[in-house]
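Team,

Forwarding the record for the chain on the shared tracking sheet. I've put the sequence and predicted structure together so nobody has to dig through attachments.
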Amino acid sequence: MKMAANLKLLSFLIPCAFFVPVLITMAPNLKGAWNSEALQNMKTVFISIFLEAAPFLLIGVLLSSLMQWFVSEEMIRKLTPKNPVGGVLVAVLLGIVFPICECGMIPVVRRLMHKGMPPYIAVTFILSGPVVNPIVFTATLLAFPSHPEITIARMGLAFAVAAAIGGLVYMFVRQNPLRKPKTTVTEVKTHPGFKMAQPHSHSTDHDHVHDKNWRSFFIHAGDEFVDMSKYLVIGALITACIQTFISRSDLISLGNGPVASYAFMMGFAYVLSLCSTSDAFVASAFSHTFALGPLLSFLVLGPMLDFKSTLMLLSTFRTRFVIGLSLVIIALVFAGSWLINLLA
């Protein structure tokens, strides 16, 4: 079934492979445009974004495959705190144990949810993990050596936003928000705030039955990597186009004003789609242009929500859930960074 779908896709790609060189041959202007400096810059930015994110995605899918092997549904249920406050706190602090960026976080969390992790803990982990970890803490300190308060405020705001959203998901989300839930028949409550289906329906989303050997491990990891990397490629390509063809000076001119500066920095973080281990160095370039609040909105929103991670979230969760989650993230990051800037 899967092979047939791949062959069907290949039938559309083969004509494209011949169509591009024909266009270049028949239109010399297009060939010159492809070799222009702007497009060379776009290709460089695209490759840098992809190469920056791909290792973390690979780490994520390898962890996901290990969990398929060694972590059972029963183990997840035993380790999950019954108290929602404890569950949120554990999820926030998991980033210290798994210091990977959002590109690798999503496949790991998807695997954990298939094995029974409640949505509110999973969402809290996705949002906090890329920020509340020792690697990002160190990178932010190095980017702002004379302003350690920025690092402390970033960690604190990310912790507060992730915990608040985890609480909201616990209170209002009663159904499994996964786009392809592992099981879908009779629902029973296995944990407060989460309904899990009985395991008598068929499995989806690459949950094939394999023996526990190295071949099945790499098959599962390869399936996960291909499934998630296509969204990373699309996100990196569109981000590279925006970074290349829209000048930074034009973007900064839009950020004048007390509210517009927050909107600009949050939008800039969403569009740039930088990894959380490197975005602090980009933010430091604006330290003389913007106040603490806009800088924080950039540093906290980017790892939680950017263009490439939105596509990956849409591939994992239902569209309605992702839209609601995105709006809440934006609102809480704006309110939190504005409040910190007011009190500073």
